[in-house]
Design brief:
By secondary structure, the chain is mainly alpha-helical. It has one domain: Four Helix Bundle (Hemerythrin (Met), subunit A) (Up-down Bundle). The protein contains seven helices and no strands. The radius of gyration is 16 Å and the shape is globular. The structure holds fe (ii) ion (2 copies).
Length: 172
């Protein structure tokens, strides 16, 4: 188990991204009567994850003021992807037909896949190390964990995912 906070932060990100992508794939594989419900759950989970990044993580990185121009461009690109994904998730939550849900889920998964690849590279431990001090990272991490647990507790399947994230962070 790593006790490197930069590595742990990144591992937590991978777990959440993996869970959301797996959930979207499960929507596409599910029978129509179950797909709608699962799609709504995944849409809500993705929105919750982005709420956390938009209100805690990204502002925390920007506040630390050690960003290079490539980091600034990376975060701006993430903001744009979040906006597009937010629109898709809103449509997903409002969709009333299985066919529409399937199409929107495909679009969401495609955009999410490219977005998380960019985000995971941009927030890789060694890159994160240059953006924030350990004290700043710990403070961001504590705020993010508090908000993540609150957001997850409010949605179906959320508490189980929260426990999985905690177990991974402990090296499980
Ligand atoms: Fe993101
Ligand atoms: Fe993310």
């Amino acid at each position: 188990m790593s006790d490197d906070q930069y590595v742990l932060q990144h591992q937590g990100l991978l777990v959440i991204h993996g869970a959301i992508a797996d959930g979207l794939r499960a929507v596409l594989a599910a029978p129509p009567d179950q797909a709608m419900d699962l799609a709504r759950r995944m849409g809500a989970m993705l929105l919750a994850h982005h709420t956390l990044e938009d209100t805690i993580l990204f502002p925390g990185l920007r506040r630390a003021s050690r960003l290079k121009s490539t980091d600034v461009a990376f975060l701006a690109s993430c903001d744009r992807a979040h906006k597009d994904l937010h629109r898709l998730c809103d449509d997903l939550l409002a969709a009333t037909s299985a066919a529409v849900v399937t199409g929107l889920t495909r679009d969401t998964l495609a955009l999410l896949t490219s977005h998380v690849a960019e985000e995971e590279a941009g927030l890789a431990p060694d890159r994160l190390r240059t953006m924030v001090t350990i004290e700043e990272l710990v403070e961001i991490g504590q705020s993010a964990e508090r908000m993540r647990d609150e957001l997850l507790a409010r949605q179906p399947g959320g508490p189980a995912l929260r426990d999985e994230v905690h177990a991974k962070q402990r090296g499980g």
